[in-house]
Amino acid sequence: MNTCTTSACAPATTSSTPATEHLVKPRYDVRSSKDAYEVRVELPGVRKGDVKLDFERGLLTLKAQRQSTAQEGWQTLHRELNRLNYGLQLRVNAPVDQVAFTAKLEDGVLTVTLPVKEAAKPRTIEIG
Amino acid sequence: MKLTNYNPFGLTRADLNDWFQHPLAGFPSLSRFFSMDSPLGRLAADVHEDKDNFYASFEVPGVKKEDVKVELNDRLLSVTVTKKDKSGEQESSYTSTRSISVPESVKADAISAKIEDGILTVTLPKGEDRKGRSIEIA
C-alpha cells in the first residue's frame, strides 16, 4: 500500500479519517443481472457488528474492523492474520435504488445487493 | 454501466474494474487465484497456543465446511479448500492447500475444527509431554 505525503495524491475529498488509520482494501467482485447489481466483499474474520456500510450520492462506502484470531490467554506462535481495518469505496454509476439496497454478512463474505430502479429496467411493450 | 474507484483513502494504485467492459463480466480474474498477496492463494494462517492446545487459524472467506479437508499426516497439518464459483451457466472451482508442521506431541485423535465468520480454527490438543509437569521431590 502506497503512502504518500504530497498533496498530489491526496484523497479527492477531505476525509475525517485520521492519518494514522491504515485501511486495507478487501478483495471484492461485482455481478449484475437485470434486476440488481451485487457486490461481494471478502471480509474474513469480521463479525456482524463491526461493519459499517453507507450508500449515498452514488458512493458506496464500507468500513469494517477485524479482531485478532487469538482469544484471551493464548500465546501467539505465528501470525499472518492481523487485526486490521478494511476500507472500500466504490462509485456506482448505475440507475440503482439508493434506499432499497440490502446487505448480508455470511461466512466472512459481505454481499451488497443494489436493486435496479424500476424505471431503468427494460420493458416489453405490447402492440395493441 | 461503469463502476469506478474513487481513490477512497488516498490509495494511489489505479484499480480499474473492467468486468463491465468485456463479455466475461463477473468472472474473478485468474490472477486472483495465483497472486501471492491473495489470502486464498496461500490460506493465510495464525498459530497460537495455551496450556492445553495449539490453535491454527486460516482465512477461508465464503467457504462452507463441506468444502474443507483437514488432515494430519505425521507432523504435518494440511488444510485443503475447494472453492466453487457459479456465475450464470459457468462454474469454476479451484483448490488451495496450506500445510503447517505441528509439534510431535499432539493428540491426533482429538483434533477438532470449526469455521466461523470465514475463519477456520483447528484445535490440536497437546500431548502429555508438552503440558509441562511438576515433579515432586521425594
From TrEMBL, chain A:
InterPro entries listed in its UniProt record: A-crystallin/Hsp20_dom, HSP20-like_chaperone, Small_HSP
Residue ranges annotated for the SHSP domain, each copy included: 19-128
Domain of life according to the entry: Bacteria
SUPFAM superfamilies reported in the protein's UniProt record: HSP20-like chaperones
Similarity comment text for this entry: Belongs to the small heat shock protein (HSP20) family.
Protein name: HSP20 family protein
TrEMBL record, chain B:
Protein name: HSP20 family molecular chaperone IbpA
Signal peptide segment: none
Bias type Polar residues, positions: 90-102
Stored PANTHER family: HEAT-SHOCK PROTEIN 20 FAMILY MEMBER
Region named Disordered: 83-104
Organism field: Roseimicrobium gellanilyticum
Gene3D superfamilies xref list: 2.60.40.790
Domain SHSP: 31-138
Protein family (similarity comment): Belongs to the small heat shock protein (HSP20) family.
Biological classification of the source: Bacteria, Pseudomonadati, Verrucomicrobiota, Verrucomicrobiia, Verrucomicrobiales
